[in-house]
Amino acid sequence: MAYDVASVRGLYTSLSDGWTYLNAHDCPQIPERVSAAVARSFRLAPSVPVPEGHTGSHSLKTLGRPEADNLLEGARHAVADLVGAGAECVVLGPNLPVLYSALVAAMGPQFRSDSTLVVSPLDRPEITAALNTANVQVREAHADLGTGEAPAWQYQELVDGTTRLVSLPAAHPQLGAVTDVAGIVDVARGRSRAWVVVDASAYAP
Questions:
Q1: Structure letter (DSSP) for residue 117
Q2: Which is it for the CA torsion 63, 65, 66, 71, positive or negative?
Q3: Is the pLDDT of residue 54 over 90?
Q4: What is the largest CA-CA distance in the chain?
Q5: Cα(176)–Cα(12) distance, rounded to whole angstroms?
Q6: Deepest in the core among 11, 20, 25, 154, taking most CB within 10 A?
Q7: pLDDT, tens only, 106-128
């Protein structure tokens, strides 16, 4: 049975021009249903939902909340169900650099004058720039020129008791090199109490 390409493309308004885009991993095309849901969310965000007549375990717990709050809470629960975490562990934001900047700002009290932060050369420049806003010494790992991977063994020298944060991507979007995240996390846990932040956006697809 042939794959009905035309009907699938018809679900994407942005593909109606007949072009095929090669940067779909960086700027994915939005399906009609998703764009309609986004538009509906913007329209309903300031409104207050009608109180429910009956109460129960699945009824709304608070009254008078704007619909936007319920949408954000629903999004957190959806992401938490997807990755197997709790909704309180999900943080939403406009893009990764903004989230990284917020993380650095929130970790400010943990940073001391002798603290260090380890970044990866495979990280996107805008993420590295956000991490460099921390007023700490920044150490940079090196990538293998032959494979494009960042070997885990070098973190034995980069991570020590002064390290507060280790940032690395799970994969490189252009080279396709996959990072040994488990090995680096083991090194970081064995040598420090640092947090390890992994950008999985290139690995997930």
A1: E
A2: negative
A3: no
A4: 65
A5: 27
A6: 154
A7: 999 989 888 999 999 888 889 99
